[in-house]
Design a protein that fits this description.
Elements (H helix, E strand, L loop, with lengths): L12 H17 L36 H6 L5 H14 L4 E10 H14 L4 E6 L6 H15 L3 E7 L8 H9 L3 E5 L16 E2 L3 E4 L3 E5 L28 E6 L3 H14 L20 E8 L6 H12 L3 E6 L2 E2 L2 H12 L3 E7 L6 H7 L2 H6 L3 E5 L7 E5 L3 E5 L3 E2 H6 E9 L1 H16 L1 E4 L1 H4 L4 H12 L5
Parallel strand pairs: 2-3, 3-4, 5-17, 10-12, 11-16, 12-13
Antiparallel strand pairs: 1-8, 1-9, 2-6, 6-7, 7-8, 9-17, 10-14, 13-18, 14-15, 15-17
């Protein structure tokens, strides 16, 4: 295996995050070309609803996705148009017939993932940003090793910056048990001569078991997820609440799209063949959810960015965002401000506690503009907010690994699942309202009274927004 690092003493969990920024900034300042997000003005004109009786606007060279027409109320013409445009912009089809389970926080997510892994019979494909050598990581690694020894093919992609704090011996132990491992973009340029892309990271969280059940969202394999946050907790006096995060479990035809995404990433790294197995079994419909699986990667079609922009731009009633790291580009910010100006209820839940210092300052640099533009800002209390979710007009929902920042949109491999329909939208709205109860609203009057010290930090962080 081409490892991420030399066998020196591991970095601490805290030290790897500043190192990530230092490495990324050094690379860019030394003259690397800065990527840019596409101008999406061309997507604005077609968003007018179709004439009465004409149905949704078809994509050029494609039929409009009829699955959506059967899934939404007849009065939701704009939602049908949005789905057609979203497919044209991203190239990803709407897949119906799925069961989608919303998972809250680490304990429920890890329990569901462990149950699926325990029941695996043929293949387990795991892609993760963090895989720590701690109580949670060791337990999950032991489970994967046990399944490999039972004859299940276990394949793992892990990011080399995300796992800088994890000793190489942790991965060597899994490899010695027969697990196939692929370290994504090693830190040392000597390990990827001619293909070194330090600033491009694999931030996805994907688990696919037997090609029949899949998981994705924001939850990593780390002890920070061993405790629940205050979300829906009976006890509001937890001394050390965990991270607030969201994941989903998918069963049905859409699992194949996540499986393909994992296998495509493995092949793109050119690190050897995977074991021969049935990675794409027959997947009959098992539910009523219509979903779109979106994946973004550097120097490619920014599918998730386009989907967010289109959904925000077409919103009629509400935009409810939950974002761990919020440093948006000018187009997303303009779309949010325009929505608030036309009377859309725009609420954003952001962290009050973070796992790093600089990114929150970048987020705060947008507060004044947002508050003056009619966007309501709430900060989640106590728990570290790590969720990346949205629900728009109660019918367009997304859960994934993508933060609303330039790093996710431009530099990382990311994955998001869009779920269309009112049923899942109601679940997402309930979760959002529960989080609001555990949040404090930031008002313009209070924000204007903040001292000058933080203002200087916000100014400095805004200059570095491209790399945060």
């Amino acid at each position: 295996m081409d490892s991420c690092r030399s066998r020196e003493a591991p970095l601490s969990d805290r030290s790897r995050f500043p190192l990530r920024w230092i490495l990324a900034l050094s690379l860019c300042l030394l003259g690397s070309a800065c990527a840019r997000l596409p101008n999406l003005n061309y997507l604005k004109t077609p968003l007018a609803p179709s004439p009465a009786g004409s149905g949704p606007t078809p994509s050029p060279g494609k039929e409009a996705p009829s699955a959506l027409a059967r899934r939404l109320r007849p009065s939701r013409v704009d939602a049908k148009v949005l789905a057609s445009l979203e497919e044209a912009a991203t190239g990803r089809p709407l897949i119906e017939g799925n069961k989608v389970t919303l998972l809250f926080d680490g304990p429920s997510t890890l329990a569901a993932m462990s149950a699926a892994v325990s029941a695996a019979r043929e293949t387990i494909n795991l892609e993760t940003y963090l895989f720590d050598q701690d109580e949670v990581g060791m337990k999950f690694a032991d489970l994967l090793i046990a399944k490999q020894r039972q004859g299940v093919h276990v394949n793992i992609i892990y990011d080399c910056v995300g796992t800088l704090g994890t000793p190489q011996a942790f991965f060597d132990r899994m490899q010695e048990a027969g697990i196939q491992l692929l370290p994504f973009h090693p830190v040392s340029p000597l390990r990827r001569l001619g293909r070194w892309r330090l600033n491009n990271r694999d931030h996805r969280k994907i688990l696919v078991v037997d090609g029949k059940v899949a998981f994705t969202g924001g939850v990593n394999i780390a002890a920070t997820y061993s405790r629940s946050s205050l979300f829906r907790s009976r006890s509001k006096n937890a001394r050390a609440p965990g991270w607030r995060d969201t994941h989903i479990q998918i069963e049905g035809p859409a699992v194949a799209a996540l499986q393909w995404m994992f296998l495509d990433n493995w092949a793109s790294q050119r690190e050897g063949e995977l074991p021969d197995a049935d990675y794409f079994p027959s997947l009959p419909a098992v539910g009523d959810k219509a979903v779109r699986v979106l994946g973004s990667q550097p120097r490619s079609n920014p599918e998730i960015f386009k989907a967010y922009f289109l959904a925000i731009q077409s919103a009629k009633a509400s935009i409810h965002l939950t974002s761990a790291y919020f440093v948006p580009d000018a187009q997303i910010m303009r779309a949010l401000l325009d929505a608030a100006a036309r009377g859309v209820d725009v609420k954003v839940i952001l962290p009050s506690v973070s796992d790093n210092w600089l990114t929150p300052r970048g987020t705060h640099s947008f507060y004044d503009q947002m508050l003056r533009g009619g966007i309501r800002i709430f900060e989640l209390k106590k728990a570290v907010l790590h969720a990346k979710t949205a629900v728009i007009d109660g019918t367009w929902s997304t859960v994934g690994s993508t933060n609303l920042d330039m790093r996710s949109f431009l530099h990382n491999k990311e994955v998001n699942v869009v779920v269309m329909g009112n049923g899942f939208g109601r679940e997402m709205e309930t979760a959002f309202l529960d989080d609001l109860q555990d949040s404090n609203e930031v008002t313009l009057e209070a924000w204007e009274r903040r001292p000058w010290g933080p203002r200087v930090g916000e100014w400095f962080a805004r200059l570095l927004a491209y790399w945060l």
